[in-house]
Amino acid sequence: MESAALDIPGVFRLGETRRKPDPGFPLNLGREGVHEICEASHGDMAAMTGFALAAARPPAGAVFWVRQFGLSREHGQLLHAGLETVARPPAGLLSVETRKTSDALWASEEAICSGAVGLVIAEIEGLDFTASRRLTLAASRHGIPLILLLPWRRDGSSAATARWRVTSRPSAPNAFDARAPGASRWQAVLEKSRQAPQMAGHVFNIELDHETLSLRVVSGLAAHAPSPRAAPADIDIRDAPPRQQTG
Amino acid sequence: MTPRPGSKQVEPARKPFVLVEDGPHGLRVAAANASARTLGISAGLGFTDARARCPDLMHEDIDRQADQTALQRIGDWMVRLSPIVALDGYDGLMIETTGCDHLHGGEAKMMKAVAGLLERNAIPHRLGLASTPGAASALARARPGHILADGEEAADLADLPISALRLSAEAETLLKRFGLRRIGQLYGIDRKALGRRFQSRAAGDAVLLRLDQALGLRREPLTPLTEPPSHITRLPCPEPLLAIEGVEAGLEQLAEALCVKLTDQGQGARAFAFHAFRADGEVSSVSVTLARPVRTPKHILRLFSEKIDQIDPGFGIDLMMLEARRTGPVDISAPALSGDLAASDTDPVLLSALADRITAKLGEGAVRITEAHESHLPEQAERKAAFDGALPAPAVPHISHGPRPIRLIDPPEEIKVLAEVPDGPPLRFIWRRVPHAVTRADGPERLSPEWWTWTAPPPPSGSPEGMDRKWLNPKLDPRADAALISRIRSELEMDDIGEPISNLPRARDYYRIEDSDGRRFWLFRQGLYEDGRGGPPLWFMHGLFA
Question: Is residue A198 part of a domain?
């Protein structure tokens, strides 16, 4: 019995001899375990949300979304019409908004343990090692994946399966209008992974195909950062008076 | 100092004592104790007169609010006897005993039980039991301790004084002046003649109404303090319970009994309330709500387990009650044997159970779903609603509008923008004090205001004629409104008032923007130059693209 209790999938133990085949991108994000997705810098929350939904491809079953009041105030709330542009809409989406981090963590654990939903996504301000360990154990025991969306302050140790750091990149060229933004591009850095430790530090430059809702890896993104639109250089809008009509 | 029923200060040492109230003609006696009443001091007497009859009369100001609260507390406690308990004036309680008296072994024994409960808590009381509320009230006031058989109201009430009929003080005085002192004297009187004696017809009618209600000729519905539940299970405790473990065990028994009752009727309930009645006249209650009708004891107990420690046993709990409210048919559907044949991958029962647990801890309406609404405005097209056990049907994908951001900032935040005049896309903008340089822009997508949901505030004074009518009333013909607006506008321009109509909603032009860091925004310009609906247009940040 004791060995059965220790043989919990997803629990990392030293001296692991069994070698699993390398999972490809996105390393079971939204398939199993707890994945932390963090902002690279303040303001990347929307890019993270899009990356999480596009990479995880919400599986069968409802999605349970836990939000913390402060974060949704700061970065806005999920819009269904926008969700449809990055991923296939899930069978159902339930949301819970809490003020306290402890309540958000409790709601996430309840959702994982209920077995009623297919994926749990939690936007929280932060969590300590104990909480992440607890969530990882719950997720592996019940087989429900959890995605944590965390602000840029997130750092330090964690028991999560993987940690990603996502930032938005200039979008792909628009084939129909050169002046308009094209397909969304993101840069995702795999900071740490318990499934594939050798891939830690790997940088994925990915692009979302809005037609097929699939991701593809692109290269040379940095080379083609477009220059800002030409604006009269002598105007500083910070102290510009309200624009007057010139007719 | 509040004169609470049961507190010992009401009759200190049996001296004459009154409660006084400020009336239109100076201080009035509002209530008097027994020794004051023997001196001829009764409610309604002027305080100076009372003082003249008894120079060392003690008095206090009456606190009607505290009396009402105390009465309501007793009323809540009396729910242990019957689900329908109503307030009767400011000094009485009505308990509907129909269907409850057999639990105590008959009407006489029930009355004894009520008296015992009140006596144990030193609450002075007078009881009466009859088949109409009016007769019961008259008995309690004039001949306490009596039980009136059904159909004998007229004979038995005849000897009681008029004051037992719950009449206003003026009506009572007037009737006494006519020499009508007993209820029986009212029976033979010509009703029209009686009505004419009073100053107003309403006053006469009020007397007749009270008489008819006492005799059972007119119905008198009770207004219960709390809505009676659909099902109740009760568990009296032989010894008052002090430990929370005992309460938990009792709750378990109650839940099982209640679920058997619900199963018999093929029903479930969406709300459960647990009351612990304490021996000292208090009741402490907890309740849970559910997303869909349920009759599983295990699930109900799990929801209560979060809250059971809020029950305060005080000096001991002698009765526990579990109520089921908001009942409805339970949706029973067998799960499909094959996963492929299942209509959906979500189990509504499991999902509701999850929602119930979260609602029990975080409050009602904590778990929400998004519902689609017919609206142009993106912040109104999706609304949050409490999850009630059913997931919304998947929305038809919108193809009629342009791309929508993944996160919506609601309400929109005003930003400073440098843009081409009159309707070019932004070149630079400042949002939350951070300047952004625009590299690429797409748009505009124009969203027109919803004139049909909008009615203008009243127009300013000195407006052209025709504006006193409410603008854009949804019932009116839209073409007529368009004509009206254009006419008003042309008149305004003709008169050269120089003030645009500023209280009309403005169109929004949305732009999809990418800045030099690769972040994508959704912002809009509210209004156009020269749209005549206010000053220069304003810019707002409304969403973030992935």
Answer: no
Q: Which domain holds residue A36?
A: 27-163
Examine residue A7 and state whether it is found in any structural domain, yes or no: no
The shortest CB-CB distance from B408 to any of A79, A97, A115 is to A79
My answer on whether B248 and B335 are in the same domain is yes
| Final residue of a structural domain among B40, B62, B84 | B62
The residue among A97, A185, A213, A237 with the most chain B CBs within 10 A of its CB, best to mutate, is: A237
| Other CB atoms within 10 Å distance of the CB of residue B244 | 14
CB contact under 8 A, B406 and A86: yes
- Chain B neighbors of A62, CB-CB under 8 A: 346, 351, 391
More confident residue, A58 or B115: B115
Give a yes or no: residue B356 inside a domain: yes
Pair type for strands B283-294 and A34-39? unpaired
Q: Give the chain A residue nearest B410 (alpha carbons).
A: A76
Strands B231-241 and B128-129: unpaired
Amino acid identity at B416: K
Q: pLDDT tens digits, residue range A63-122?
A: 999 999 999 999 999 998 888 889 888 888 999 999 999 999 999 999 999 888 989 999
C-alpha to C-alpha distance for A126 and A155, rounded to whole angstroms = 9
The predicted pLDDT at position A220 comes to: 58
Instruction: Say if strands A34-39 and A146-150 run parallel, antiparallel, or are unpaired.
Output: parallel
Determine which of A168, A169, A186 to mutate to test the interface with B (most B C-beta atoms within 10 Å): A168
Strands B146-147 and B231-241: unpaired
Mark yes or no for CB contact A110/B520 under 8 Å.
Answer: no
Is residue B357 a part of any domain in this protein?
A: yes
Distance CA B481, CA B346 (A): 49
Task: Name every chain A residue with its beta carbon within 8 A of the beta carbon of B405.
Answer: 46, 76, 79, 82
Answer yes or no: is B222 within a domain.
no
pLDDT for residue B468: 45
Q: Provide the residue range defining the domain that includes B190.
A: 66-215
What is the CATH number for B392? 3.30.1490.100
Q: What is the ipTM of this complex?
A: 0.82
Shared domain check, B286 and B393: yes
Task: Work out how many domains chain B is built from and give that number.
Answer: 4
Q: What is the CATH number of the domain that holds A125?
A: 3.40.50.300
Residue A100: list chain B partners with CB under 8 A: none
A24 CA: distance to closest CA in chain B (Å): 23
- For testing contact with chain A, the best of B354, B377, B416 (most A CBs within 10 A): B354
Helical packing angle, A101-114 and B348-362, nearest 10°: 160
Q: Nearest-CA distance from B333 to chain A in Å? A: 16
With an 8 Å Cβ cutoff, are B517 and A107 in contact? no
Average pLDDT over residues B435-461: 77
- Alpha-carbon distance A174 to B459, whole Å? 48
Residue where one domain finishes, among candidates B155, B182, B215: B215
In a domain, A222, yes or no: no
Q: Distance from B278 to chain A by nearest Cα, in Å? A: 33
A149 within a domain of the structure (yes/no): yes
**Does the residue B2 lie in any domain?**
no
- Residue pointed to by tokens 């628009």: A174
